[in-house]
Write a structure and sequence with these properties.
- This protein is of the alpha/beta class.
- The chain has 2 domains: 5-76, Ubiquitin-associated (UBA) domain (Helicase, Ruva Protein, domain 3, Orthogonal Bundle); 79-285, Vaccinia Virus protein VP39 (Rossmann fold).
- It has helices at residues 5-18, 24-36, 40-45, 53-67, 72-76, 98-117, 131-139, 152-164, 206-209, 225-237, 253-261; strands at residues 78-81, 84-87, 120-125, 143-149, 171-175, 186-191, 238-247, 265-272, 278-285.
- Helix 1 (5-18) runs parallel beside helix 4 (53-67) and helix 2 (24-36) packs across helix 4.
- The structure holds S-adenosylmethionine.
- S-adenosylmethionine (SAM) binds next to helix 7 and strand 4.
- S-adenosylmethionine is lined by residues 93, 95, 99, 125-129, 131-132, 148-151, 154, 177-178, 192-194, 215-216.
Length: 289
């Protein structure tokens, strides 16, 4: 039986409503557009286009996955982040829009380092898909990036993303736990570490709990394990005049500031995401007066 692209989107919307998804219409349009490589404008202008049978099959089997709560970008294995198109793998977190707040906060710092010194070395601890580091490299010519992760498979994906975005010449990786994977000092240390308290993971939305890797979510008993490790190693790996920029959970600013202050750092900026939630902190070494 033939079907138009517009009718298929309507079918999916009804299917997603019945499955209890919160954004059935948006998900239906996004899934069809991404799978069939069609723009939203074309979807509206050519809603009466008849689809090939194999395209219908492809979309219908993806829709079944979405009804089981697999996120749209997981299904298509890619998403855009800042100016980049990134591929995802089962071992990488799907980068979030909130994390673009960290990139925006780091950009002026990296640009200033390049204009002062001709270069800026960046380490991204827990790089996952490479999202933060690669977004910075794409915007700041002259910067170099080093991505670390506990997951070898995530680093394979990060390197793939560097190649796809023509950034491989300025990006390298190392596998290991936080600063154990790092030698030397950096002008900018960035990290979006796992920060969800272990006991809270069970109650997360299935899209997150069942499809993002546990290592990307689980921040230990109080959610702060990674910040403790990063704060403890930062002094050894931060260049003179350098900055540490971390993403946090919405209710973690005070606790994370306390951890870094106790280890010789000043918080020079607290930044909220577009939703108005506490999201990013910037630290420098304490000034000696
Ligand atoms: C919240 S995800 C962030 C991924 C990516 N930076 C982003 O913002 O989309 C945290 C990342 O930290 C990594 N990770 C977890 N434990 C780690 C550890 N002990 N050392 C280094 N990386 C770790 C995870 O594998 C995951 O890729």
């Amino acid at each position: 039986m033939t079907i138009t692209i517009g009718a298929l989107v309507s079918d999916l919307k009804s299917q997603f409503e019945a499955a209890g998804l919160t954004e059935p219409s948006l998900d239906a349009r996004r899934l069809v557009c991404l799978l069939l490589d069609v723009s939203l404008t074309d979807l509206v202008l050519h809603a009466d286009r008849i689809l090939a049978e194999e395209d219908v099959e492809l979309v219908r089997s993806a829709a079944t996955r979405r009804c089981r709560r697999e996120p749209v970008h997981r299904i298509v294995s890619r998403r855009s982040f800042f100016s980049l198109e990134l591929v995802l793998s089962p071992e990488t977190l799907e980068p979030r829009s909130d994390t673009e707040t960290l990139v925006s906060a780091a950009l002026p710092i990296a640009r200033a380092a390049v204009s002062e010194n001709g270069t800026c070395s960046i380490v991204d601890l827990g790089t996952g898909s490479g999202a933060i580091c690669l977004a910075l490299l794409a915007e700041v010519d002259g910067a170099t990036g080093f991505g670390t992760d506990i997951s070898k498979e995530a680093l394979d994906t990060a390197r793939k993303n560097a190649e796809r975005n023509d950034l491989a010449g300025r990006f390298s990786t190392s596998c290991g736990s936080w600063f154990e994977a790092v030698d030397g000092t950096f002008d900018v240390i960035v990290s979006n570490p796992p920060y969800i308290p272990t006991a809270d993971i069970e109650a997360l939305e299935p899209e997150v709990r069942d499809f993002d890797p546990l290592a990307a979510l689980d921040g230990g008993l109080d959610g702060l394990d990674a910040y403790r490790a990063i704060a403890a190693g930062a002094d050894e790996h931060l260049a003179l005049g350098g900055h540490i920029i971390v993403e946090t959970g919405y209710d973690q600013h005070e606790a994370v500031i306390g951890l870094f202050q106790g280890l010789g750092f000043d918080c020079i900026s607290r930044i909220q995401d577009l939703g108005g939630n506490d999201r990013v902190l910037i630290f420098t070494r304490k000034r000696v007066s």
